[in-house]
TrEMBL record:
Metabolic or biological pathway: Amino-acid biosynthesis; L-threonine biosynthesis; L-threonine from L-aspartate: step 5/5
Essential cofactor(s): pyridoxal 5'-phosphate
InterPro entries attached to this UniProt entry: Ser/Thr_deHydtase_PyrdxlP-BS, Thr_synth_N, Thr_synth_N_sf, Thr_synthase-like, Threonine_Synthase, TrpB-like_PALP, TrpB-like_PALP_sf
Protein family (similarity comment): Belongs to the threonine synthase family.
Limits of the Tryptophan synthase beta chain-like PALP domain: 98-334
Organism: Natronospirillum operosum
Protein name: Threonine synthase
Top-rank EC class of the record's enzyme: lyase
Sequence ranges assigned to domain Threonine synthase N-terminal in this UniProt record: 2-80
Residues the record lists as N6-(pyridoxal phosphate)lysine modifications: K112
Gene Ontology MF terms: pyridoxal phosphate binding; threonine synthase activity
Length: 466
């Protein structure tokens, strides 16, 4: 399969090259040139497959030519063996026709493990094959960082640098990253917010000369297509468990960088009968404003009780816009330029097309806490603040009461003590494998929000001299 850039000015690439990069040279994001489509009969026949085999059926067309089928099957089986629930993604019913899809049974307790456990293995395979070393550079608002570290720390050919906003991730999130002391892991606490971290990562991808041509930079954020691809599978898995493809379903997705919900959109385009996708945001509601009022305006980033979604510049929205603008790369390049300058409006037909599938809602901290309390009182089930935003949005803008509504449970509540306690709930115990997390030694470096400083730190750590 070939992959093309959303800005239309970069050569098409095979999967292996897309895996081993971040942004396209024209600044765009890679997407498949064509998407596989699965007819209802084919999807129906997948109903009884275990998660790893379903993943194989869905992902194989995307990686064909990169890895042979047997090796890919083994890789997927190993990837999901690291999860602590036999169903991999259990569904928790919280009301009539209303469910939470628990995506937090991987090693770092957030949905990122689905893709990053696989990405580490794919990168290892590619680098071994090529006899190359690579440098991973990623930005995190808390969850991607630990999942990337956990997924890649055993990769012999990789140095990994993760930038998190200093003092703006939860204590559990920080410790999950900073207590991994392998020599190839480098945690940077940046004096800035998540957008600053992500901007610095993207700028470093655009100009990689600081690596002296001796290493390539690889992305672990959802700008890397392989991240998005792996997240498509659980939409199919949950739908199959609730009567799909013979029944329509809706999903509510706690949203920041628009990666997870974009995977849901792809599942829809690949044949899954999704009737509604809800973009659930916290007070950083730029996506809600553009979808509901056609008004894109970047406002200062707000710090909320759902820190992983404290994002203003939402990377993957560009991938959706590319489709909404009939894959016109030049139009997307112009629109992204306007957006990067802070303000934009969308073409009315493009927005109307988006609204046939997408709705949106923004939830503030008080409503987040109220939802955590409400669901606990109704069911005894404790939501994390990000999932609570998804549930609240689902209950507010749901179109069809007679179709299952699935909110993606994107993280375990134990990662977010502040929100749990503000909601008046008892803080749960850390799972066994993290039970001594607060006693472990931490290692990280605080750096100012300055690209030259960050890059020379990286060069010193990789090559031993600046
Ligand atoms: C717990 C949690 N929920 C939701 C999101 C938002 O997902 P996305 O960035 O794919 O929109 C994130 C971060 O990305 C997250 O860590
Ligand atoms: N919420 C994320 C932010 C980065 O998003 P990504 O999906 O593009 O990696 C985080 O927790 O780090």
């Amino acid at each position: 399969m070939k992959y093309i850039s959303t800005r239309g000015q970069a050569p098409a690439l095979e999967f292996e090259e897309v895996l081993l990069t971040g942004l396209a040279p024209d600044g765009g994001l890679y997407v498949p040139e064509t998407l596989p489509f699965h007819a209802p009969e084919e999807i129906r026949a997948w109903r009884d497959l275990p998660y790893d085999e379903l993943a194989f059926r869905i992902l194989q067309p995307f990686v064909a030519g990169f890895i042979d089928d047997d090796a890919f099957r083994t890789m997927l089986a190993d990837t999901y063996a690291a999860f602590d629930h036999k169903a991999i993604v259990p569904l928790q019913q919280i009301d009539h026709n209303e469910y939470v899809l628990e995506l937090f049974h991987g090693p770092t307790l957030a949905f990122k493990d689905f893709a990053l456990q696989l990405l580490g293995r794919l990168l290892d395979h590619a680098l071994e094959k090529r006899g190359e070393k690579a440098v991973i550079m990623g930005a995190t608002s808390g969850d991607t960082g630990s999942a990337a570290i956990e997924g890649c720390r055993r990769c012999a050919n990789i140095d990994i640098f993760i930038l998190h906003p200093h003092q703006r991730v939860s204590e559990v999130q920080r410790r999950q990253m900073t207590t991994v002391l392998n020599d190839n892991i480098h945690n940077i606490a940046l004096e800035g917010n998540f957008d600053d971290c992500q901007r610095m990562v993207k700028e470093s991808f655009r100009d990689q000369s600081f690596l002296r041509g001796e290493r390539r930079l690889v992305a672990v954020n959802s700008i890397n297509w392989a991240r998005i691809m792996a997240q498509i599978v659980y939409y199919f898995y949950s739908a199959l468990n609730l009567g799909g493809p013979d029944r329509k379903l809706a999903f509510s997705v706690p949203t920041g960088n628009f990666g997870d919900i974009f995977a849901g959109y792809l599942a829809h385009r690949m044949g899954l009968p999704i009737s509604q996708l809800i973009v659930a945001t916290n007070r950083n509601d730029v996506l809600h404003r553009i979808l509901s009022q056609n008004h894109y305006e970047q406002r200062p980033l707000a710090h909320t009780l759902s820190p992983s979604m404290d994002i203003v510049v939402s990377s993957n929205f560009e991938r959706l816009l590319f489709d909404l603008y009939d894959r016109d790369g030049a139009a997307i390049a112009g629109l992204m330029d306007e957006m990067n300058h802070g303000k934009a409006t969308l073409d009315r037909d493009a927005l109307a097309r988006a609204r046939t599938l997408f709705d949106s809602h923004s939830v503030d901290d008080d409503a987040t806490c109220a939802t955590i309390r409400e669901v606990f009182e109704q069911t005894g089930y404790l939501l994390d603040p990000h999932t609570a935003i998804g549930v609240k949005a689902a209950r507010t803008v749901r179109r069809h009461q007679d179709q299952p509504m699935i909110t993606l449970g994107t993280a375990h509540p134990v990662k977010f003590s502040e929100a749990v306690e503000k909601a008046g709930m008892a803080y749960p115990e850390l799972p066994y494998h993290l039970s001594d997390l607060h006693d472990r030694e931490e290692r990280y470096t605080v750096l100012s929000n300055d690209r030259a400083q960050v890059q020379s730190f990286m060069v010193r750590e990789i090559f031993g001299s600046a």
